[in-house]
Amino acid sequence: MAAEAKRKEGGFKPAYAVAIAITAIAIIGLVYMTTNSGAASGPVVAVGDNISVYYTGTYTNGTVFDSNAGKTPLNFTVGSGQLIKGFDDAVIGMKLNETKTVTIPANEAYGEVNQSLIVTVPKRDFGNQTVTVGMMISTSRGAQGRVTAVNATNVTVDFNSPLAGQTLVFKITVVSIKK
User: Fold this and answer.
1) What is the CATH classification number for the domain harbouring 153?
2) For the chain, is the Cβ count within 10 Å smaller at the N or the C terminus?
3) Is the pLDDT assigned to residue 49 strictly greater than 90?
4) Is 169 in the same domain as 107?
5) Is residue 174 part of a domain?
6) Which run of H or E residues covers position 24?
7) Are residues 58 and 120 in the same domain?
8) Which whole number is the average pLDDT over 44-51?
9) 172: closest CA among 102, 123, 119, 114?
């Protein structure tokens, strides 16, 4: 009788305990879903991940200079220096199947044009070979350059990347992430 009298006086009420427990479970579930919402959407690209991407590279005027769309994806390890810095940095934080467009300045792409890589050589060094503007040549050490000028006595060859000095735009889609 003493316990029943205490309940009537405002002591323990089982209905309140159940309501408190249900509320606590709901709050814990809400906190879990909020803090783990990224996990449900899949992995996020980080330095050291091996990823595969489709990309289309354009100049700022929209002219495409390279693309693997519809071909084999480009595979690389993020942060390894395999690709230009701006591209490497752009994929960090992307999710699987995410697409984004990024503009990369020359200093984070192929660098500025290096005047010391533009050389003039005597035309006779080419022997009987016909040399024309736009022609690609290789040195005995494997360096590749593009002929930019030819006259009666000299040939000018640019050993810079054709993309040096350019701001580049890439549309990138992540198609695989391996942690």
Assistant:
1) 2.40.10.330
2) N
3) yes
4) yes
5) yes
6) helix 14-35
7) no
8) 98
9) 102
Condensed to tens digits (0 to 9), the pLDDT of residues 126-157 reads 999 999 999 999 999 999 999 999 999 999 99
Confidence of residue 26 (pLDDT cuts 50, 70, 90): very low
Tokens of 10: 């405002």
75 pLDDT more than 70: yes
Tokens representing 88 are 């490497």
Q: In this structure, are residues 20 and 14 in contact, taking their beta carbons and an 8 Å threshold?
A: no
Question: 10 Å Cβ neighbour count for 122?
Answer: 9
- Count of CB atoms situated within 10 Å of the CB of 61: 6
Alpha-carbon dihedral angle through residues 169, 51, 161, 124, given to the nearest 10 degrees: -150
* Amino acid identity, position 97: N
Compute the C-alpha angle 143/149/153, nearest 5°. Answer: 100
Compute the distance between CA of residue 67 and CA of residue 58 in angstroms, rounded to an integer: 9
Per DSSP, 54 falls in state E
Are 98 and 173 within one domain? yes
